[in-house]
Design goal:
mainly alpha, 337 residues, single chain
Length: 337
């Protein structure tokens, strides 16, 4: 790619795409980048050779595309190469954002060991530069690392720190992100009654922002809380509402969590065939997206999966094979039925 074309392409990404990719409606740019992914790779390759700091600016902006469109491994590769590139540039917001993106993609693959130093460096740079928005993000990165480590007290502490920073900024994006993680930490501490009004508060904030992904996420979380409280009909209603949004947006890793939640409900209702099929559909989507199961979901996942296998016996293989043969549209129709 010629230098003028690189700079024109990168200028468009940084000036037009960057704010939208972390905004409430990023899918227009996700779709556009799908069509221009070869150009993105060419531009990043040029930057890696000639201007790594510019490349870090680009990668620090476009990592949500890699995360949401099943391109996490290639995103991590680009970020790792750009962050490792020799440079004489001083610590910068571009580097801090790229570090946060790299740490987030590592988290999505369950790689807390890699994510921790990335978020720590991102936080240190952001604090040095006084960039409070990146401080709020990096603190959430550290909260996610604590989640992977099973340290829920640390997850809550980092989420509360992030929420304090975000509220001081009066920024809905970082406030919504921090509130979500704080409520998730509280849920993991076991107080299901206390988190319900906070989930509704988070849900209302996302609706106010027009953030369909955020709305779907909190509907899913409320569905899981209602399932754990034994309100299976309400849980199924919330999970299907979440699934309808995620299905329209094509967010496969989150569709998978809705399948899993509905699979747990099927198990609780004594339907091993439906439970096994929905859990297999979830496994298939996670594998395709290259993401790891959130450790907090592992115990319920193993319990429902083992129960369905035991109930189905020799029929289990045929049931799961039929799930793997489904198209996504077929799987969505099955889960909604």
């Amino acid at each position: 790619m010629e230098v003028d074309r690189v700079h024109a392409f990168v200028s468009t990404l940084l000036e037009e795409a960057a704010p939208e990719l972390i905004g409430p409606r990023p899918d227009v740019w996700f779709d556009r980048l799908e069509l221009e992914v070869d150009g993105l790779d060419e531009a990043l390759g040029w930057c890696l050779e000639h201007d790594p700091e510019l490349g870090r600016s680009v990668a620090g902006a476009v990592w949500p595309f890699w995360m949401n469109r099943g391109r996490i491994p290639e995103g991590r590769q680009w970020l790792d190469r750009l962050l490792a590139a020799p440079t004489s540039d001083p610590p910068s917001t571009a580097r801090a954002r790229a570090l946060y993106g790299a740490g987030t993609l590592a988290f999505m693959q369950g790689d807390g060991e890699a994510a921790l130093p990335l978020h720590q460096e991102s936080l240190a740079i952001a604090e040095e530069l006084g960039d409070q928005e990146v401080v709020a993000d990096a603190l959430i990165g550290l909260a996610r690392v604590a989640l992977l480590a099973g340290d829920i007290a640390e997850m809550r502490r980092r989420s509360e720190q992030s929420l304090s920073v975000a509220r001081a900024l009066a920024d809905d994006r970082t406030t919504g992100q921090a509130l979500h993680h704080l409520v998730e930490a509280m849920r993991r501490e076991g107080d299901l009654e206390a988190v319900i009004p906070l989930y509704h508060q988070s849900l209302e904030l996302q609706r106010r922002r027009g953030n369909e992904r955020g709305v779907a996420l909190e509907l899913h979380n409320l569905g899981n809380v209602e399932r754990k409280r034994g309100n299976l009909d309400k849980a199924a209603e919330l999970l299907r509402e979440s699934l309808a949004i995620y299905g329209t947006l094509g967010v496969s890793r989150n569709i998978a969590y809705c399948f899993l939640g509905l699979g747990h409900i099927a198990a609780a209702e004594g339907d091993p065939e439906r439970a096994a099929r929905l859990i297999e559909l979830a496994d298939k989507l996670w594998a395709e997206a290259g993401v790891a199961l959130d450790p907090d979901y592992r115990d319920d996942y193993e319990r429902s999966k083992r129960w369905a296998e035991g109930e189905l016996g020799d029929e289990h293989h045929a049931v799961t094979a039929s799930a793997r043969a489904m198209t996504l549209d077929q799987a969505l129709a099955y889960a909604r039925a």
